[in-house]
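PROTEIN DESIGN WORKSHEET
SECTION A - STRUCTURE
LENGTH: 121
TOKENS:
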């Protein structure tokens, strides 16, 4: 007769445990793969954010350098203007000196009239 040997209860139990372990291992593997994928996604997102921050930092540094350069140029222009103003004041004072000493007091119309009257007598 062609009888197939039947499995013992212990063998069935071992096979069930083995299958359960395989299923559990596959579930753990799936969770790990999902976790790995999430970590890759998070890492990519962090790299993107880091790149954006670096770019913004570079832009801010460049703006700061431009502002510092402009401040320096402004300070130089102010210094040049102060020097030029001082030179112009000195030149003006030199031009005014002879004029001030040569100015005669103006005669008032009354003085001219009386001087004219007295001179004709």
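SECTION B - SEQUENCE
RESIDUE ASSIGNMENT:
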């Amino acid at each position: 007769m062609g009888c197939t040997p039947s499995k013992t209860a212990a063998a069935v139990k071992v096979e069930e445990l083995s299958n359960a372990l395989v299923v559990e291992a596959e579930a753990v593997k799936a969770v790990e793969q999902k976790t790995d994928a999430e970590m890759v996604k998070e890492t990519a997102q962090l790299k993107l954010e880091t790149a954006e921050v670096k770019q913004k930092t570079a832009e801010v540094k460049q703006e700061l350098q431009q502002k510092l350069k402009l401040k320096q140029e402004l300070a130089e222009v102010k210094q040049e203007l102060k020097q030029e103003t001082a030179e112009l004041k000195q030149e003006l004072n030199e031009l005014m000196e002879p004029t001030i000493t040569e100015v005669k007091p103006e005669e008032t119309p009354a003085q001219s009239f009386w001087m004219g009257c007295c001179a004709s007598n």
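SECTION C - NOTES
Residues 9-102 form the longest helix (94 residues).
The chain has a mean pLDDT of 84.
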